[in-house]
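Work package 3, deliverable 3.1, input record:
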Amino acid sequence: MSDDEVPPAARARVAAAVRTSLAKHGYARLTTAKVAAESDLSEAGLYYHYDTKDEMIAAFLTEARGSLDAELDALAEADPEARLRAVCNHLLVDPDETERSGVYVAVMELLAHAPHNETLHEHLAAMERHVLDVVAGVVADGVEQGVFREVDPEGTAALLVAATDGATGIDLALGLEVHDELRASLQDYVDSLLAD
Amino acid sequence: MSDDEVPPAARARVAAAVRTSLAKHGYARLTTAKVAAESDLSEAGLYYHYDTKDEMIAAFLTEARGSLDAELDALAEADPEARLRAVCNHLLVDPDETERSGVYVAVMELLAHAPHNETLHEHLAAMERHVLDVVAGVVADGVEQGVFREVDPEGTAALLVAATDGATGIDLALGLEVHDELRASLQDYVDSLLAD
């Protein structure tokens, strides 16, 4: 069944189960039995809507994109400087947020499989492209309003997204305890974007 | 056999074979048969020195740390600003460098396994900690010489290493074509560190 034809409530249930089980087990050790164990669906129930484990993961990635939009929409800050600071703070996951850390580490693992896996590649690319566009939009607003210098919105977004993605390895997966320093440096970077 | 007892030439041969096969196949699909196929060693020869596949990968990570030192030592630039720019340019892998891109994507996959794998965790943490220290050292030199503002060397290094690590996902694994923008933004970030 194509994901578009799956009833939204069913997709959300599968995505939530995939999210929890990915956070706990990672991608390589994920089985549909483990996904089922994290939900009120049986394995047969999972396969009723999706033909493969990767399609279930794709459903999770599609839902994750929607959740991120909702989270970013919920950020109250309207002016571009405060909004960019809030977006950076949101994208940089705190190691103490156990489930969210697990999800970010699992997404990093999925990214490593993307070159060999078309389904994952397509859905991860859509998700990361979306994050880049959202951040670039905030930067572009700031440049237009004269809050930021004439920086390149796409390049600035690429650096910020790369930095928050890359924190997953050194901070979340390895626990090198660079979190506070990283958070402060991101804010210092936003300072450096401000127009004189 | 502990890695310290493996003759350096044998370790280098195993590490080179692991590097090439990891770049080609990634971690999940790596077998010692594939590692042997990339070297003049048989599988029996690999197991003569190392008990497990992960120990062979650990040998590769130890060698990689040494290679990075040699590469960074080879950067001719002595003054901190030029040196930091050169280090950033070196750490940011060009998607056209096929083997090096493959290695970075495989290391990203290894990072995702680190929370569940003590051997990988230990060797990856040593490697990433070393990169952080090298970059922080260059920043600290620049601050001391008055070339850079009074920025926090550790935080600045964390941001730069996170950004170049995170480029692996969006730029190398997904091919979102943010490479030139990212390279320019890193240089713009170094600009922002300069003392007035």
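Chain A touches chain B through 51 residues (CB under 8 Å).
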